[in-house]
Automatic annotation (TrEMBL):
Origin species: Geranomyces variabilis
Subcellular location, record wording: Membrane
Membrane insertase YidC/Oxa/ALB C-terminal domain boundaries: 104-322
Molecular function GO terms recorded: membrane insertase activity
TM region positions: 102-125, 282-302
Protein name: Cytochrome c oxidase assembly protein cox18, mitochondrial
Source organism superkingdom: Eukaryota
Topological type in the membrane: Multi-pass membrane protein
Major subcellular site: membrane
Family: Belongs to the OXA1/ALB3/YidC family.
Any single GO CC term annotated in Swiss-Prot or TrEMBL for this entry: mitochondrial inner membrane
Keywords: Membrane, Transmembrane, Transmembrane helix
Lineage: Eukaryota, Fungi, Fungi incertae sedis, Chytridiomycota, Chytridiomycota incertae sedis
Database matches in InterPro entries: YidC/ALB3/OXA1/COX18 (IPR001708), YidC/Oxa/ALB_C (IPR028055)
One of the GO BP terms on file: mitochondrial respiratory chain complex IV assembly
Length: 350
């Protein structure tokens, strides 16, 4: 009963505010029986259980206050949602952990393998095929380039025509060579820039999952907010010697394993590149080797959850590269030799 009386009183006050906000016709235009005396005792909208609102208060303010109160009460009940990718990873791992009843260490391993298989493995397969096609196209491109240089030498040694005609012929040959090269890349879908797509997906995924696990383990990091406590069960969700996933590895087994796995990946990639007939970039290889030496001391300072993710991801990469190495001898579609000869002949046009 008190709640009903309070609701009725609020409705009565809101109607009173709406009625006061309407324009009032002049008193002399109303019939005498409908004229309202502007006295406190004859006010039609005075609540019996509370004093009437002061006549000096604008009615519009009362209506605006009521609308603001309703809007505020509705807004406070709305759930706050975040679009941060780390929140998605946190929700994914929590869902897998709760629905499958797996321990946290097994949940991290399972989600790592699933994310790598869904996000990076298809791109790695496409990149591998493109690199193989590119390796088979490169000899033809080198032949075209040698023909191009031989024709340039012929122009210089012939001595016919002026320097302007020789320069125009050189520009025409260069344009023709670039057009043929682009046409060959499109025909066999092996443009070198497309082979760089995988790192643009794999690196952001690695950083996102690492930040999510850091947040779940409540590991402090500069310029980032840190929860007060790890997620429930994280401190006892490990196994063997790493029971606490929010603590560092006291045995150095995981940091050293991470360094060894990354070094193995670098050497496997280098061997695959050399087997395809291309030369590996010495500076890039040296840069990644330096990163391997840097990640080992970093791994000794981060929680076991991060070590477990980094080791699982590196082991997935090793298995993936070994599979590519085994399938390296599989035959791919070669460019048509006759078509290549014809295109080479087409290039001999000055």
């Amino acid at each position: 009963m008190p709640a009903l009386a309070a609701d009725a009183r609020c409705s009565f006050l809101l109607l009173n505010a709406v009625a006061r906000s309407r324009p009032r016709p002049p008193a002399h235009s109303l019939p005498s029986c409908h004229r309202v005396r502007h006295r406190r005792s004859t006010c039609l909208f005075t609540a019996p259980s509370s004093p009437a609102h002061p006549r000096s208060q604008p009615p519009s303010l009362t209506l605006a206050a009521a609308i603001t109160a309703i809007t505020t009460s509705t807004t406070t009940t709305t759930t706050h949602l975040t679009l941060a990718p780390t929140t998605w990873i946190d929700a994914l791992m929590t869902t897998v952990h709760v629905s499958s009843t797996l321990p946290w260490w097994a949940t991290i391993v399972t989600c790592t393998v699933a994310l790598r298989a869904a996000c990076t493995l298809p791109l790695a397969l496409q990149q591998r095929k493109r690199m193989e096609r590119l390796a088979k196209v490169v000899p033809l491109l080198k032949g075209w380039e040698q023909t191009f240089h031989m024709q340039l030498k012929g122009l210089k040694g012939g001595g016919g025509g002026g320097s302007s005609s020789a320069s125009a012929a050189k520009s025409r040959m260069q344009i023709l060579f670039n057009e043929k090269k682009s046409e060959l890349y499109r025909k066999y879908d092996c443009h070198p820039l497309k082979t760089l797509l995988l790192p643009w997906v794999q690196i952001p995924l690695w950083v996102t999952v690492s930040l999510a696990l850091r947040n779940m383990a409540a590991f402090p990091a500069p310029f980032l907010t840190t929860p007060e406590f790890p997620v429930e069960g994280f401190t006892t969700g490990g196994t063997s010697w790493f029971v606490d996933l929010a603590a560092q590895d006291p045995t150095m087994i995981f940091p050293l394993s991470i360094g060894f796995l990354h070094w193995t990946n670098i050497e496997l990639n280098r061997s695959i590149v050399r087997a395809s007939g291309r030369n590996d970039n010495v500076m890039i290889t040296g840069f990644f080797r330096a990163l391997v030496l840097l990640i080992i001391p970093v791994a000794t300072q981060v929680p076991m959850a991060l070590n477990l993710y980094w080791a699982t991801s590196a082991a997935f990469s090793v298995a993936q590269n070994l599979a590519f190495w085994v399938k390296g001898n599989s035959k791919q579609k070669l460019p048509n030799t006759e078509a290549g000869v014809k295109e080479k002949e087409d290039l001999n046009v000055v």
